[in-house]
Amino acid sequence: MSDPLPMTAATVTAHGLLLRPWSEDGAADETAALRIALGDPEMGRWNPVAVHPEPDDTEVRRWLAVRAEGWASGTRASWCVRDQATGEVLGNVSLQDVDRQRRRGLVGYWTLPGARGGRVASRALEAVTRWAFAELAVHRLELGHAVGHDASCRIAVRCGYPLEGTLREALPNSAGDLMDMHLHARLSTDPPCDPLAR
Questions:
Q1: Predicted TM-score of the model (pTM)
Q2: What is the CA radius of gyration of the chain?
Q3: Per-residue pLDDT at 175
Q4: Residue 176 has pLDDT above 90, yes or no
Q5: What is the pLDDT of residues 12-21, one digit of tens each?
Q6: What are the extents of the domains in the chain?
């Protein structure tokens, strides 16, 4: 069972990135970025996110409302990932399903097509991992991705989340097909990682 997260939305700065909660009303650059993300076939291929060729304002507002409600209810923390120097929107990183009694939670991420290959997801994941260990006192963070999503697997391992096993037909894609899922995890006692290391 999930326990509420801190009610105050937090900003995190690390590794050249600025992680800020998504604007509830949809800042212009965030709306534009979400239109790209929600229309990206690669997102739908690997994630349960509904993908449309041309997402409209209603879909963007719905997506933003879920993230805002997550912060307000304490059930999910979602950040808009920006380049710290330029402010450009690069992607998303999230933390959810926090169970304080068992001291664990679940992390996830995605990057915009134009930001891939720059270790954005690795840097954002490492920043949120450290934040969760320090601010929420969780001990175990889990990360799941579809089997075959090799880029996501590399990100997890680079950030100190070793592969623990495969969960059969555990993750739906946007079409509703159930995919096998790799389960990775990191403990608060594991050594720190450099998301830019080779």
A1: 0.92
A2: 16
A3: 78
A4: no
A5: 999 999 999 9
A6: 12-187
**Of 48 and 78, which is predicted with more confidence?**
78
Task: Look at residue 1 and tell me whether its pLDDT is greater than 60.
Answer: no
CB 21 within 8 A of CB 5: no
Q: Residue type at 150?
A: D
Alpha-helical (H) ranges within the chain are: 28-38, 41-46, 57-73, 120-131, 150-158
Cβ contacts of 97 within 8 Å, gap of 6 or more: 2, 105, 106
Domain over 12-187 is classified CATH 3.40.50.2000: no
141 — pLDDT class (breaks 50, 70, 90): very high
List CB contacts of 86: < 8 A, sequence separation 6 or more.
Answer: none
Pairing of strands 104-111, 140-146: parallel
Contact partners, residue 101, CB within 8 Å, separation at least 6: 1, 3
Put residue 140 in one of left, alpha, beta given phi > 0 → left and psi -120 to 50 → alpha: beta
pLDDT, one tens digit per residue, over 95-114 is 999 888 899 999 999 999 99
Spacing of C-alpha 164 from chain mean position: 19
Alpha-carbon distance values, 72 to 57, 68, 80, 99, 128 (Å): 22, 6, 16, 17, 18
Alpha helices in 50-119 (DSSP H): 57-73
Dihedral-angle region of residue 128 (phi above 0 means left; psi in -120 to 50 means alpha; beta otherwise): alpha
Distance of CA 138 to the CA centre of its chain: 17
